[in-house]
């Protein structure tokens, strides 16, 4: 039976639209992760439910397998995904509230990028200013582009219920730290594209695999490995684990500032960065 959840094709994985426009794969990973953190940050300020935040991040990750960061702003698409997911999961957010929160985050990040030593003080925008209407239009257009480019297939399966069932089968559900740690890995994995690359059973097994390794918990290895109970294979689990572990790698301050600047500056900043890379030294 074919999966109802759309996964990226081999051609899309080998070369994303952003890669075709010259954006390095490592930078694209950083921008994807930064966009997801932006969704999380805005969602928490808006007191959005976790189901809405998770759905938004998965839709956001799918979008970049059919669209380029040269053509669409990462920050704007993140807010569009948050707005769309709030409707899909029946926990709606008002556009005005999303705009207010995004404006706070954007101004605070700009303050950080300028290396200001003074305390950040937010100045509210006027609801009659061009900035407000520009952001409103950008969020609405981003929502429409998400639906259009994903072929109106916004079906999302979340792994949290499956995680509890799997851990019950494996006898890990009574281990409080194991459940908490695995849940955290699933949340962190939202910042990576693995929800568009692997099936939900594989992703759950990845979280359990990393958890048992971290907590040094013994797992069944014979007569058959434990993950075969859930139709997952070792190669995919290790590959998915690699995506998550790369999130924790140490980045230089320059790399962190570059990602922040490209996200907050939108597609214009990405285009300017690409043009700069093409210029002869």
Description:
By secondary structure, this protein is an all-alpha fold. Helices cover 64% and strands 0% of the residues. The protein is built from 13 helices and no strands. Helix 3 (25-45) packs across helix 13. The model has no long low-confidence stretch (mean pLDDT 91).
Describe the structure concisely for a colleague.
The protein is an all-alpha fold.
Structural class from helices and strands?
mainly alpha
Question: Stretches where pLDDT falls below 50 for ≥5 residues?
Answer: none
Strand content: under 5%
Helix percentage range: 55-70%
List keywords for this structure.
64% helix; mainly alpha; 281 residues
